[in-house]
Design goal:
The protein contains six helices and eight strands. It binds S-adenosylmethionine (SAM).
Length: 170
């Protein structure tokens, strides 16, 4: 089980970027996302994507982030530009254990740095929770997310020009 915990979500300001965090989580191999602020619209959007494009991804908003992290029985990775090097950290993480990946929005409370088993940086420059999550998941699963099958009603086939889309009713 790979879950993502998105903390500090502000509905008006972060709706687009939190949607992208959830879409990256789903596409790059996570099973679930927790978001601290209740956001029904976001849940509907992500469920609609799953309904059309398939997969078993789950979304839960309005969670108590501290409680989720404290009750998590597997490994916790917090992505932060202040963390330890990505390549060094990845080697130390047991891939057979459940994984909770924490990403922030604005300033992340200091207790998250303490709760996390690994504070991991994806480079030490500030960029984005979307890019940090994508690169971390890609390295964590060695690019296996690329061949994951979603079996959705809509399937897009790779092509150089135009669009090849298969639509089927289930
Ligand atoms: N000043 C904030 C802080 O203290 O963490 C940075 C906020 S940043 C806009 C939002 C999130 O993107 C961070 O909480 C972190 O999860 C992720 N992030 C940004 N740059 C990162 C990096 N270089 N490595 C890992 N994660 C990063």
């Amino acid at each position: 089980m790979i879950a993502v915990l998105r903390i500090g979500h502000r509905i008006s300001r972060d709706k687009r970027i939190t949607t992208h965090v959830a879409l990256v989580a789903r596409a790059f191999g996570a099973d679930k996302i927790f978001i601290d602020t209740k956001d029904i619209k976001l849940e509907e959007n992500i469920c609609s994507t799953c309904g059309r494009f398939g997969g078993k991804f789950e979304i839960k908003t309005g969670v108590n982030a501290n409680k989720i992290a404290k009750q998590w029985s597997g490994i916790i990775v917090h992505l932060t530009m202040y963390g330890d090097e990505l390549d060094r950290s990845i080697k130390k993480i047991d891939k057979n254990d459940d994984l909770l990946i924490v990403v922030g929005a604005e300033k992340v409370p200091s207790q998250m740095y303490a709760i996390a088993d690994f504070n991991v940086s994806v480079g030490n420059q500030p960029h984005s929770e979307v890019s940090a999550l994508a690169i971390f998941l890609d390295r964590y699963n060695n690019g296996k997310w690329l061949t994951k099958r979603f079996n959705g009603k809509i399937q897009i086939l790779p092509c150089n020009k135009g669009k090849k889309v298969i639509s089927r009713d289930k």
